[in-house]
Amino acid sequence: MVGPETVRMLELGHPWVVADAYTKKWPGGKAGQTVELCDGQGRFLATALLDPQERITARVLSRERVRLEKPWLTRRLQAAIRLRSEHADLSESDAYRLVNAEGDGLPGLTVDRYAGYLMIQLYSAAWRPHLKLITEILQELLSPLGIYEKQRPQKTRELEAAGDSKNYGRLLAGSAAPRQLEVRENGLTFLVSLEQGLNTGLFLDQRRNRQDLMKRVEGKRVLNLFAYTGAFSAAAAASGASLVTSVDASPGYTEWARANFGVNHLNPKRHEFIVGDCLAVLGDLQNAKKRYDVILMDPPSFSTTSRSRFTTRGGTSDLVAAALPLLNDGGLLIASSNHQKVDLAEYLKELRRGALQAGNELRVISLFGQPEDFPYPVTFPEGRYLKYAVCVKDPK
Questions:
Q1: How far does the chain reach from its first CA to its final CA, in angstroms?
Q2: Structure confidence by residue, pLDDT tens digits, 155-168
Q3: Same domain membership, residue 353 and residue 292
Q4: Residue 300, CA atoms < 13 Å, CB-side half-sphere
Q5: Are 234 and 261 in contact (CB under 8 A)?
Q6: Residues 32, 23: Cα–Cα separation, whole Å
Q7: CATH number of 38's domain
Q8: Domain carrying residue 15
Q9: Domain check: are 146 and 56 in the same one?
Q10: Are 202 and 189 in contact (CB under 8 A)?
Q11: pTM (global) more than 0.90
């Protein structure tokens, strides 16, 4: 039985049951069990996957009575594959999301494609007992060269900020991928790692946004802050940007960015790569009287360096204020955030605070989110996490 507040949320279509006084009275169960959710009168509401030790203690699989067995799971995975083939523009890309958790009716489970390989991630221990079955079905449906799982340890954000490069990926089936695997996105080549690190080196949810950037940068000077492995930078350079300056706090990611230039036959020596804290580097660039036509900022939702601490909430406005003096009038400020807990309205307020602090006017000309392979239910606002705002700087 679930409480009245959970009943209301489930009737509105939300897929989560958050732990409360009612769930604490549930009989003991193990992660991965399916349970039937009922209201106080015993009326059936949904079939859910149990994860009793977590804050999200159950995730809805269906509004009907179902069994989490091979036929049902096969149909769900087939539907996810069909959605991509019918609705996503993947003609020049072989790296994309194949299963997007709640967006494909499999909450807490994602599957990504990287060329001939698949990468599974479990965002809930409830899927762990079903991992072998998932792997078996994916092999039958797609015949990949190999299937990996990228494990998600506790305190992922802090580990990522510290540049943790341990092997979090493990091969579940098939043959091993090269240590640096080449994938295609928008006709460009990028290097990814299926074993090393917490992430693969390419954020697939920015594919369409990188495609948009490619249309805007010919002959322009571009500054890419929090450049990571340089996917946006390589996209800009390949599209005719006269200069791309990439800034990131990690020497390892910066070398990876240079390698991404190399595999696209772009000479990294014609561009700039700066290792350092982005706010500090912005000050140095301003002192050097540098100016740019496009400034892109796509910080992680949590980032630490020895010199500063950045978080999306509160940090974005300072970053915008520091960047705008380097942007030519009429230039583009492109600001992006993947922080799920900061909604679009709040994010635009952060951009406004930064613009006011710098004494500038910013006009939003485009707003994007994640692409078609990252669907989300309209009943699940948490699913629309990516914010990508293209803004024009007006003269003072």
A1: 60
A2: 554 555 555 567 88
A3: yes
A4: 24
A5: yes
A6: 16
A7: 2.30.130.10
A8: 4-62
A9: no
A10: no
A11: yes
